[in-house]
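Workshop exercise sheet. Pairs work together: one partner reads the sequence aloud, the other fills in the structure field after running the prediction. Swap roles for the next sheet.
Pair: D.N. / O.F.
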Amino acid sequence: MKTNIRYLFKLFVGAAVWGVTLFFSSCRDDAPELLNPQEYDINNNESLFLAFWHGMNNSYVYWDVDPTDWDAMYDQYLPVFQDLDEKMEQIQMADNVSEEEAEAFVREMQETYDEAFGNMCRNLIDHHLDINIQTFLGNDTIRVNLMPGMRDELPTRDYYHDFETVWRLYSIISSMEANGEIVDLVGGVFPPNYPLIKPNEKDASAFASYRTADGIICLHFPTFSFGDFVADPSAIQTQVIRNFQKLIDETPDVRGVIFDVRGNNGGNLDDIYEILAPLIDEDIHIGYVRTKSGTGRLDYGPWTPCVVHPAENHRKIDAPIVVLNDIFSISMAEMLSMAVQTLPNGCVIGERTAGGTGPLFGDFNFSYNGAFDNGTIQVSCATLMWKTVSGEIIEGKGVTPDIEFLQTPEVYNAMCQGSDLQLERAFEYIRTGNIE
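Structure field:
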């Protein structure tokens, strides 16, 4: 059957062209200069592959510690995409192309994209990495979405569990208030913003602050978003953080402080000045960051110390300060954990965290690295590399707790019955000092 289907293959286009057309050489050594990934003109499979490879080559911040051989990925997969273009050209030139042949090629192209890009990125350690590729072939759309860390690596850990428990926190907190276990509760629920959650009626996370009868002050929060709402006194986030700060100021004998960041997906760096800075009276060194400083893959700037300064209105807390976290705690939740671990009275309880420590606040135009978007390829990745005060890079690994308390099936079942055993373990540590 003669068909016009071949003409659809001439419609292979990127969703947008953001700048000047650049010439791609098939040899890496021929083009050592920096290529802005946001200005690539994508018009076939080869140019799409090159745009992605060069974009990651320039923008990814972890190349000096990542196990992936990026040059080997180039050598292995460039010919694969070139072969796709040859097949596409043959179809365009053919006089008779059946619908079945056309559909088979679309399937082959999707399968090739899934396999090639999946294999290229499988072991990349940036746990903030989120890759979206979308292009068009006639009326068909070829899509790839990759989250090598959070969606692929995390579930392989032997302590991985469902996210659902964080949905139950506020009902447990409310029951604690009703039973007289806690007082001065301010809180509520807020829809979470987390890529692994599927929307349903239970998708709400707890913002809450309160104190126990014996003076333990607790702050539960699913995101570092307090700074986004401080101008709105009616926002639940503002009410919760102001209540926490008031409790710190006015509780006569603070027995301990708990920051519950289980399920916390990070957020604003400045929030640490709303949360931790009010509890310290001197600077604390919490780690180091560095970013790219030149056009080469391994051109880095110096390591810069990260320091938290005391808040203008502060009260030094000598009692135990605890961070309660889990496998889904990431980004700023991990920075808070590392900051508290530097304190002589600090302790982290729970699970090894996700391992997405690199801050995300810039793009390629900021420092030759970070997020980039050319309309066809969108990549969200860390702008800075982080290492601990002791010099360890924990990207892809996570913060190891001082006291491990995993969400086992027994812990999960207890939470379903209204008992938060992980929170109770934090109370026990503060009250007894028991680290076993």
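Discussion prompt: The chain has two domains: 5-145, 164-432. What would you look at next?
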